[in-house]
């Protein structure tokens, strides 16, 4: 045996005993001369079946020609050649080999064969590849998180946009077809899709709703396990119920669903759905999904906080608006009080002068003008009070048509010339029991709303009608009671309202108008007034179709007493009765004293309650009547009246005030049996009131 052969045999023996190595010696004709045990095992052949065969016979021409031969040839030329690659073994499948070709010299120093030594490093190779793959994923995942962290949608807590970003990033990062984010309804009966991203369509959609009781196993699992990671979703017990209706039609095979937890409780789910061959999820992908679920949870929390803050700001703005209205009201009330006092003085003296003048006197017309203007001013003051919502509410039997007619002119001015206002009264309208100023308030509010709803030219109708509501009608309308009503309707052909607006119009502060224009108090006030008077209100409106507001006011079944406002008749005179007059404003005290004396009363004037008490104490004769202002320093009129009443149980009292009703009401003036006269009053008003009170038993 040549030295060479001896060496090769030794080499074979050695390599047989080293598990990792395979050895083959190939001659210049590419035939196997020697092979080791492991080599045989790789091809599942015996030594006899392989020795003498050529390499291409064993490996196939293609692999031999393209990969093996060029390398072998270099070894035959004397080079030690190393390479590594995947090889397909009939018995073992794909293996990764590290191969070295060593030229072997024969005894004549010629290269007649090559030793191929290969080592199977498949496991190492796979581990390396897995590691590389894991590193690649880790890099993607880190990038994804970083990308989300600097996304503007997160800073501004734009929830819908942020969720879209998340679902897209997740789809791209873990390479799944569909990523969706879902939110539970409060009672957990439904899961609503906030967003779903479909990778191939590059599209977001949302809005789908799943009923939790349709998929009990899934929801039970997500509630208890907080996550569902399945590689065979169509067969897994937790998700099999989704197979027919959902997974199979969409060809979803694997799912990676992570629960969104806020303070430990499940509020939603982030779902990844994989289409294609079943997929085994890597642990880093699972933990990535957990991180994503945490990010979504934080987003929900921030969003809730943001909404709470916005709500707070809105409330704050409303509060400011309400306060502004309140202070405007107070201001208006205060101004009205002052003007009332001045008007009382002006009108009082003017009437005196008028009485002293002959109608042929050139100044007679002038003084009539002064009185007329003064009276007009008192009406303006009343409107100011109506605006301030501070008028005294004193319902009385009245005729709705008359009230509407008295305010029509003002309404026409209010709505402007471009809008046509028509008035269609019921011919014999039933009486109602109402405070006329409240009807004014209703009409002003409804007409202003109608005006605001009309852009450019348009039409407003005001109508009254006697209406009998029967059982059948009322059973269809919540809150309506059968009976006789006077209907007041205000309709417009303006822009109308959506259902959403219509649902909210009676809410205080609800407005669709810009700040400064809308207060949202109009219809809520109207509603309050109508309810307070046992009426109903109904609004019909559709976008583009205009609006009709119908108010039903109960028929007041008693005869209307004619209210003698403008009765001719003479001013009733006094019969020398003693009147204790208390008023802290000097000018008013003087004019009223004058009026009373002219009427034939004996007047004890007092500038303060203390002075009044003092006067009363020292007046030897009985005092018939106390006329007192309500709001005074030291003691209010009501208190003073009580004190004097103890002393003179027969004394009658008239209260007067220029203050708006609510303030007077604070001073005990709401009782029905109280005699109250609102400043400014005409000399005649006062004279009539005094007679009425003195003649009461
Ligand atoms: P404001 O007029 O200050 O907004 P309201 O309580 O009077 O407050 O009205 C509330 C809302 O109802 C309005 O902002 C408007 O959106 C709606 N609305 C009321 N009346 C009408 C109407 N005639 N036509 C259309 N919308 C109306
Ligand atoms: Mg309004």
Task: Lay out the secondary structure.
Blueprint: H1 3-17, E1 21-27, E2 32-35, H2 37-43, H3 47-50, H4 55-59, H5 61-76, E3 81-89, E4 93-105, E5 111-120, H6 122-149, H7 152-155, H8 159-173, E6 178-184, E7 190-198, E8 203-205, E9 209-211, H9 216-225, E10 227-230, H10 243-250, E11 252-262, E12 265-275, H11 283-356, H12 362-387, E13 396-399, H13 400-415, E14 419-424, E15 431-434, H14 436-453, E16 458-469, H15 471-476, E17 483-492, H16 499-504, H17 522-532, E18 536-541, E19 547-554, E20 578-582, H18 586-599, E21 602-606, H19 609-618, E22 625-629, H20 637-647, E23 652-657, H21 661-666, E24 676-678, H22 683-695
Parallel strand pairs: 14-16, 20-21, 20-22, 22-23, 23-24
Antiparallel strand pairs: 1-2, 1-5, 3-4, 4-5, 6-7, 6-12, 7-8, 7-9, 10-11, 11-12, 13-15, 16-17, 17-19, 18-19
Bound molecules: adenosine-5'-diphosphate and magnesium ion (MG).
The site of magnesium ion (MG) has 4 residues, from helix 14.
In words, what does this structure look like?
With 697 residues, this protein is an alpha+beta fold. The chain folds into four domains: 3-120, Beta-Lactamase, CATH 3.30.450; 151-281, GAF domain (Beta-Lactamase); 323-370 and 569-697, Response regulator (Rossmann fold, 3-Layer(aba) Sandwich), CATH 3.40.50; 393-554, Histidine kinase-like ATPase, C-terminal domain (Heat Shock Protein 90, 2-Layer Sandwich), CATH 3.30.565. It is 46% helix and 24% strand. The chain is built from 22 helices and 24 strands. Strands 6, 7, 8, 9, 10, 11 and 12 form a seven-stranded antiparallel β-sheet that branches. The chain has a five-stranded antiparallel β-sheet with strand order 2-1-5-4-3, sandwiched between helices. Strand 4 (93-105) and strand 5 form a beta hairpin. Helix 6 runs antiparallel to helix 8, helix 11 (283-356) packs across helix 18 and helix 14 (436-453) packs antiparallel against helix 17 (522-532). It is rod-shaped. The relative contact order is 0.05. Mean pLDDT is 86; it is low at 559-568. Bound molecules: adenosine-5'-diphosphate (ADP) and magnesium ion (MG). Adenosine-5'-diphosphate binds next to helix 14 and helix 17.
